[in-house]
């Protein structure tokens, strides 16, 4: 019985992530932000940009940084590749990818991500994302900066 409840929660968390990352990839930031809390902690062990913080607190701060960072692109079209179940059914490890076009240069931007997330109810409270910064550098260039990233929540 306990394992059945845990498995149902894992299924629910996967569905929450799927809806959330689809909204994010579509640049539907209003819908995306409904999955975040004011105190959601975001971490990047490998910085996406040289001036990007290694962590950020708050859904509003993250959305501001995402809007600025994604402004010069078509929708990112995030898609889930693989889910990995955790012992804690409120946690999730997920591999996903993006595929878009940088509007200024016409270059294709496609990156792979690994996320470790923890949910409370239907909200993300923790999100650690591993992203390949070299892919960002190749498309956006070494001078690309995200002024919104300096605004930590």
Summarize this structure briefly:
The protein is of the alpha+beta class and 153 residues long. 32% of the residues lie in helices and 33% in strands.
Could you give the topology of this structure?
Layout lengths: L1 H24 L3 H5 L2 E8 L11 E3 L1 H12 L8 E7 L5 E11 L6 E13 L2 E9 L1 H8 L13
Parallel strand pairs: 1-6
Antiparallel strand pairs: 1-2, 3-4, 4-5, 5-6
Elements, N to C (H/E): HHEEHEEEEH
Strand residue content? 25-35%
The helix/strand class is: alpha+beta
Count of helical stretches: 4
Q: Between the first and last Cα atoms, what is the distance in angstroms?
A: 40 Å
Low-confidence stretches: none
Fraction of residues in H or I helices: 25-40%
How many whole angstroms does the radius of gyration measure? 15 Å
Instruction: Based on Cα principal axes, name the global outline.
Output: elongated
Q: Tell me about the biggest sheet?
A: 6 strands, mixed
Q: Average pLDDT value?
A: 92
The beta-strand count equals: 6
Question: What topology, given as strand order, has the largest sheet?
Answer: 2-1-6-5-4-3
Explain what the structure shows.
- The protein has four helices and six strands.
- It is an alpha+beta fold.
- It has a six-stranded mixed sheet with strand order 2-1-6-5-4-3.
- A hairpin with a 5-residue loop joins strand 3 and strand 4.
- The protein is elongated.
- The model has no long low-confidence stretch (mean pLDDT 92).
């Amino acid at each position: 019985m306990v394992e059945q409840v845990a498995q149902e929660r894992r299924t629910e968390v996967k569905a929450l992530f799927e809806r959330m990352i689809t909204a994010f990839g579509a640049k539907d930031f209003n819908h995306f932000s409904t999955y975040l809390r004011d105190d959601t902690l975001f971490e990047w062990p490998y910085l996406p940009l040289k001036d990007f913080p290694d962590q950020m607190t708050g859904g509003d701060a993250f959305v501001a940084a995402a809007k600025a960072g994604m402004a010069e692109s078509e929708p990112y079209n995030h898609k889930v590749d693989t889910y990995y179940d955790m012992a804690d059914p409120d946690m999730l490890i997920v591999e996903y990818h993006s595929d878009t076009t940088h509007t200024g240069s016409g270059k294709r931007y496609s990156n792979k991500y690994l996320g470790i997330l923890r949910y409370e109810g239907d909200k993300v409270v923790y999100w650690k994302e591993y992203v390949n910064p070299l892919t960002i550098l190749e498309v956006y260039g070494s001078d690309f900066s995200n002024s919104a990233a300096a605004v930590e929540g």
